[in-house]
């Protein structure tokens, strides 16, 4: 929810400076009234969402998402919104942008601070100001003005400095919350991984993962539901170095829920925290920390390779190299040709029987798009 507030503002659909505004401050009431008045103005001015949400606006939003370490769920929402406007946001676009945008926000789960602190430091407009050389400043926004004009108005209104006193109450400076561009520790926050386990792609938020687990090779521990995996974690049946595989939790599998409880169980287990990865065709919470690789596509319910991984196969991934592969069968490393033959043999038996769903849910799970296309319908 926090990420999509930021994306709404970054797209130009929300009033400047509104994303992550603390609920306890009077500013939010004033902003709500301004938003209501602005809606009436937009009707009179005949400015529609399609006039604002252009491809350049989406590219701006992805740049901001990369800089703040936003939720991987934005890689579902943004492509789906764009699809309604007949704009295609390819997974490769996210990866391309994350290669060149500095990570600026020291925000949980990638950093230390909560969203309230981020807003006091200048919020989304501060990120836009710092990255203005990378953004298209001429895009139309909900104010009826361009992004460049909005940033000028905020500077004249003293938006960027008026809340620094709140930061001082926390003993913080702006630079401790929003890094200057030349002091950014690394580029981007998410990566698109591809390989024989995810031919269409998968997503990892490496900014919320310790350096040691941004690449890893280990034995697959395979589960056909999150509940099974969670039980294995809390029962002590998972070992350091393992790679948990949770499948049939993608869009067509179960509607693509978050694998939240399993990741939290891993993080809370001192023996496993920082030593176990999770690979799934499901998704994750924006607050997830750790080696969480989601959106594996094609998903298991659509017959993707993840459906045919077996206990003890060896999986290897690398956020830096953007790869996710099965590199061994039954505990033995082998070449890609043999792995391909084994997967074909296993696929001949088909996926496990899926429970029949009726009504709208049944129609969705039958026709849902790949997670790499936004998991829409």
What value does the average pLDDT take? 96
Radius of gyration: 22 Å
Main sheet attributes: strand count, strand direction, barrel closure: 9 strands, mixed
**What percent of the residues sit in helical stretches (DSSP H or I)?**
25-40%
Give the helices and strands as they follow along the chain.
Answer: HHHHHHHHHHHHEEEHEHHEEEEEHH
| Strand order, largest beta sheet | 1-2-6-5-4-3-7-8-9
Please, how many helices?
17
N- to C-terminal separation? Answer: 21 Å
Please state roughly what percent of the residues sit in beta strands, choosing from under 5%, 5-15%, 15-25%, 25-35%, 35-45% or over 45%.
5-15%
**DSSP, total strands:** 9
Structural class: alpha/beta
Quaternary organization: single chain
Folded structure, characterized:
The protein has about 375 residues and is an alpha/beta fold. It contains 17 helices and 9 strands. It has helices at about 1-10, 25-45, 50, 55-70, 75-85, 90-100, 115-120, 125-130, 145-155, 160, 165-170, 175, 225-235, 250-255, 260-265, 335-345, 360-365; strands spanning about 190-195, 200-205, 215-225, 245, 275-280, 290-295, 315-320, 325-330, 330-335. β8 and β9 form a beta hairpin. The two termini are about 20 Å apart. The model has no long low-confidence stretch (mean pLDDT about 95).
Give a quick rundown of the structure:
This protein has 377 residues and is an alpha/beta fold.
């Amino acid at each position: 929810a926090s990420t999509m507030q930021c994306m709404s503002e970054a797209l130009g659909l929300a009033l400047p400076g509104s994303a992550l505004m603390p609920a306890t401050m009077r500013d939010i009431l004033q902003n709500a009234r301004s938003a209501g008045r602005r809606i009436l103005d937009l009707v009179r001015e005949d400015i529609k969402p399609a006039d604002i949400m252009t491809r350049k606006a989406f590219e701006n939003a992805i740049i901001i998402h990369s800089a703040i370490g936003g939720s991987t769920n934005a890689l579902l929402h943004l492509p789906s919104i764009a699809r309604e406007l007949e704009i295609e946001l390819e997974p490769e676009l996210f990866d391309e942008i994350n290669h060149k945008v500095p990570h600026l926000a020291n925000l949980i789960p990638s950093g230390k601070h909560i969203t309230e602190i981020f807003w006091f430091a200048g919020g989304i407009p501060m990120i836009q100001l710092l990255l203005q050389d990378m953004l298209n400043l001429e895009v139309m926004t909900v104010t009826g003005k361009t992004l460049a004009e909005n940033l000028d108005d905020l500077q004249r209104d003293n938006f960027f400095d008026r809340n620094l006193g709140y930061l001082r109450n926390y003993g913080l400076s702006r630079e401790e919350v929003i890094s200057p561009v030349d002091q950014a520790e690394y580029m981007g926050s998410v990566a698109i991984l591809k390989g024989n386990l995810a031919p269409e792609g998968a997503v990892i938020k490496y900014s919320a993962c310790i350096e040691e687990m941004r690449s890893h090779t280990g034995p697959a521990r395979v589960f056909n539901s999150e509940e099974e995996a969670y039980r294995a974690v809390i029962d002590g049946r998972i070992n350091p170095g393992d790679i948990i595989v949770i499948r049939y939790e993608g869009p067509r599998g179960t509607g693509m829920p978050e694998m939240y409880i399993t990741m939290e169980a891993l993080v809370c287990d001192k023996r496993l925290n920082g030593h176990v990865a999770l690979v799934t065709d499901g998704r994750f919470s924006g607050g997830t920390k750790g080696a969480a690789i989601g959106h594996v596509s094609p998903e298991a319910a659509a017959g993707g390779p993840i459906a045919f991984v077996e206990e003890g196969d060896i999986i290897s991934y690398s956020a830096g190299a953007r790869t996710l592969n099965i590199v061994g069968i039954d505990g033995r490393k082998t070449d890609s040709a043999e792995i391909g033959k084994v997967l074909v043999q296993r696929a001949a038996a088909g996926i496990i029987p899926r429970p029949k769903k009726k009504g709208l849910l049944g129609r969705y799970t039958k026709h849902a798009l790949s997670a790499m296309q936004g998991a829409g319908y």
